[in-house]
């Protein structure tokens, strides 16, 4: 993690890295996603199940394992040093699903893990800190969003409230209600001045990546573009020792999915105690075998 990335992640709670994939990597990943999306849903059952997520997204479970071009993104060279630093070299991986947003989908309400814990439904612990001399930052619950389509200003898509991972009061229901009145449409919300101050709508291009603490208040504006979908892989990470507190029922992947994975990814998925160092955590560049 560069000093600039560290500062930004600490201050804003997320990082946005343009052009993280090479053009070849992007092409391979897009080909894999096209294949996944043109496979009849029946054939995906039990491994890469398709669900219409309440009209918010089309959702493909475990898509990260569908093809090596997608699995490689889990430990990609652009994000791997960041994953290791955020987890203090005790990395764990939980889930990797594909989300597809189209103009027929609705918005995703603003949310964060911090809200859930303040409301008593999540982790009541401090999960973001920096070392006293500022040489490292830690965050034990974060998401990595890899983009496969261009987002242009005005299309809609992901919104983030920079710095909100450090807030101490929960998000106000009134804000949700007024944004919902305007259908989470950025232009209408801006015009009517009802967005929380500082809320940003990111416009990543295909091949870009966002790394975001799940404590940051975030959501999705209604997708407006009709000529493009917004397809992105959502990879969820934590520390190996927080995974150890989670139930197998929540973490276990179908055998058919596990069997496809390289040993490096399997090691990353494993629960572990705090003092053990995974061999992958000692690797600077992960090459899947
Ligand atoms: O629409 C988005 O980009 C946000 C998705 C999201 O919040 C999530 O997958 O947890
Ligand atoms: Fe989220």
Question: What do these coordinates show?
Answer:
With 289 residues, this protein is of the alpha+beta class. It has one domain (3-270): q2cbj1_9rhob like domain (Jelly Rolls, Sandwich), CATH 2.60.120. 28% of the residues lie in helices and 22% in strands. It has 12 helices and 13 strands. It has a 7-stranded antiparallel β-sheet with strand order 1-11-8-13-4-3-2. Strands 5-12-9-10 form a 4-stranded antiparallel β-sheet. A hairpin with a 3-residue loop joins strand 2 and strand 3 (57-60). The radius of gyration is 18 Å and the shape is globular. The relative contact order is 0.22. Bound molecules: 2-oxoglutaric acid (AKG) and fe (ii) ion. Fe (ii) ion is lined by residues 111, 218.
Brief sketch in words of this structure:
Helix content is 28%, strand content 22%. It is an alpha+beta fold and 289 residues long. Strands 1-11-8-13-4-3-2 form a 7-stranded antiparallel beta sheet. A 4-stranded antiparallel beta sheet has the order 5-12-9-10. The chain has a two-stranded antiparallel ribbon with strand order 6-7.
Keywords:
289 residues, alpha+beta, binds 2-oxoglutaric acid, binds fe (ii) ion
Write the layout of secondary structure elements.
Blueprint: H1 3-12, E1 14-17, H2 23-38, H3 41-44, E2 50-53, E3 57-60, H4 68-71, H5 80-86, E4 91-101, E5 108-111, H6 113-118, E6 128-130, E7 137-139, E8 141-147, E9 157-160, H7 173-181, H8 186-191, E10 200-201, E11 209-213, E12 218-221, E13 230-239, H9 240-243, H10 248-251, H11 255-258, H12 263-269
Antiparallel strand pairs: 1-11, 2-3, 3-4, 4-13, 5-12, 6-7, 8-11, 8-13, 9-10, 9-12
The structure holds 2-oxoglutaric acid and fe (ii) ion.
Fe (ii) ion (FE2) binds at residues 111, 218.
């Amino acid at each position: 993690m560069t000093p600039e990335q560290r500062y930004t992640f600490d201050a804003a709670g997320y990082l946005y890295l343009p052009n993280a994939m090479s053009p070849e990597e992007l092409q391979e990943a897009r080909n894999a996603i096209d294949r996944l999306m043109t496979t009849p849903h029946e054939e995906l059952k039990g491994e890469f199940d398709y669900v219409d997520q309440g009209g918010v997204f089309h959702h493909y479970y475990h898509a990260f394992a569908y093809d090596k071009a997608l699995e490689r993104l889990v430990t990609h060279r652009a994000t791997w040093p960041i994953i290791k630093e955020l987890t203090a070299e005790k990395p764990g991986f939980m889930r990797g699903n594909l989300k597809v947003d189209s103009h027929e989908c609705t918005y995703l309400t603003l949310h964060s893990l911090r809200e859930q814990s303040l409301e008593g439904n999540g982790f009541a612990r401090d999960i973001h800190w920096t070392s006293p001399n500022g040489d490292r930052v830690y965050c034990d619950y974060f998401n990595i969003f890899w983009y496969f389509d261009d987002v242009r200003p005005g299309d809609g898509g992901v919104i983030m409230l920079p710095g909100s991972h450090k807030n101490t009061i929960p998000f106000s229901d009134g804000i949700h209600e007024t944004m919902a009145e305007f259908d989470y449409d950025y232009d209408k919300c801006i015009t009517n001045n009802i967005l929380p101050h500082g809320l940003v709508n990111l416009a990543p291009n295909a091949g870009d990546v966002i790394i975001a603490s799940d404590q940051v208040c975030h959501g999705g504006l209604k997708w407006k573009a009709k000529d493009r979908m917004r397809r992105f892989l959502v990879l969820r990470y934590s520390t190996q020792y927080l995974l150890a507190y989670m139930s197998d029922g929540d973490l276990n992947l179908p055998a058919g999915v596990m069997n496809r994975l390289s040993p490096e990814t399997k090691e990353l998925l494993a629960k572990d105690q705090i003092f053990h160092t995974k061999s992958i955590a000692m690797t600077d560049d992960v090459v899947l075998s």
